Amino acid sequence: MTAFVIWLHVLIAIFFSVHAIRSRQQIPWLLILFVIPLLGALLYYVGIYLPSWRRERHDRKAAAEGAAKTVDPVRALRDAQAAFDFAPSAHNQVRLANAQLVAGDAEAAAATFGACLQGVFANDPEIRLGAARASIACGRHAGAIGYIERLRQTDPDFRAEQASLLLAQALAGVGRAAEARAEFEAAVKRHGSFETKAEFAIWAAGAREFQLAHRLQNELRSTMDRWNRHTHAMNLPLVRRLEAAFAEVPPQH
After folding, report:
1. Domain encompassing residue 215
2. For 47-73, how does the pLDDT look when each residue is reduced to its tens digit (9 = 90+)?
3. Which burial class, exposed, middle or buried, applies to 130 when counting CB atoms under 10 A from its CB (0-12, 13-18, 19+)?
4. Boundary of a domain, candidates 67, 86, 117
5. Has residue 164 been placed in a domain?
6. H-type helices in 87-124, by residue range?
7. Sorting pLDDT into bands at 50, 70 and 90, what band is 93?
8. Is 144:166 a contact under the CB 8 Å cutoff?
9. Final residue belonging to a domain, choices 43, 67, 91
10. Is there a domain that residue 183 lies in?
11. In terms of pTM, does the model score above 0.85?
12. Averaged confidence pLDDT in the chain
């Protein structure tokens, strides 16, 4: 019986040790798992393994929901157009504008968002943000700057990270490189998300700021090394844009 308990402890410790190594946990966890029988495994399960499992489960669910929304953008556009034709409400108009943008018709999306901003919805922050996205997508960067600046005047904290990234991209689009860099730097300092750093790196690569681009690339790789396959799938479009941007960047020396 004693031998069985010992082997059970060893097997459990090995199982959690493999998880600790793969998820890059701190070295003391390995000592705890083997030095403190069963109690160490219980602590690891509650403190590390269970939260990690829950995050992975959430990531899988989010990835599935995201995939379901983007499987058929043409159908989504068709449905949105039909809904708007049947009932031309503000809600259906916004739905149509978003569907046009996802389907790749940025010109139509910009026009529809512009129409949404007439009348009582002139200061709606969600619509104004969508209008900025559509404007950038169709190359109307000056218009996007106007939308974001107006948004910051009326709702300075509304989706601050997205607004900052859109403004930085729009500033870059009109050739105001120094202001674009300053806006990217402010966004990274305030938010520090993978998306923010990735967009900054894409800009840096295009602006031939190679030293900055490589520094950001190294930070992003460190983050991606910790991802599971579901997180990677969720960020795949952005990762592909990164790869395309760095295809023209000289290797780091």
Report:
1. 192-253
2. 666 666 666 665 555 554 555 455 577
3. buried
4. 67
5. no
6. 90-102, 106-116
7. confident
8. yes
9. 67
10. no
11. no
12. 82
